[in-house]
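In this section we walk through a basic example: taking a raw amino acid sequence and producing a predicted 3D structure, encoded as discrete structure tokens. The instruction is simple. Fold the sequence below.
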Amino acid sequence: MPVDLYYVPGSAPCRTVLLAAKALNVDLNLKLVDLHHGEHLKPEYLKLNPQHTVPTLVDDGFSIWESRAIITYLANKYGKGSSLYPEEPKARAMVDQRLYFDIGTLYQRFSDYFYPQVFGGAPADKEKLAKVEDALKLLDLFLEGQKFAAGPSLTLADLSLVASVSSMEASDINFTKYNNIKRWYETVQRTAPSYEEANGKGLQAFKELVKNMMKK
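The resulting token sequence is shown next.
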């Protein structure tokens, strides 16, 4: 049975899943969801995901959404023994912590700051920007003396974080002023399997979307 991924190319969470699938050698049957025309609100999609979000993964009848839940599921099922999601409890806890930091702090604060500007025409909020900068300072601290976000090896944490951080290229946020983040970002770009295909192309689509939306 194919592993179906319902996705939007520019979405950072969708790019996270694409990166993880490439790293785990999982072939995905990609199903584009047209949000503009409400495909995510149709009964057949709501049956798969009542929260009507992307990405949504369907594997042999099992449906799961939220990108970080998806990638840990893929690693648990298809990547046993992989260093991407180590089985040693402390090492795995570190990966999980970074994933939770991404969804609850870094990506959340970026979304809260930038998406109202893109999709709602709101002005930039300096207080929200300051919170993004605080999150970046934390990430920079996490990376002090470490090659990757959760230790010496590439893990799912890096793949999730790099999708979030790279999205900031479409904004006025300069994450490269943080030396550890800049070094890490360049390292992940070089080492994540099929980075350009899995993240680079979608990032360009996101940048084009932002450019077009900000013109309105």
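Looking at the output, two observations stand out. The chain is about 60% helix and 10% strand. The first helix runs from residue 12 to 24. In the next section we compare this with other chains.
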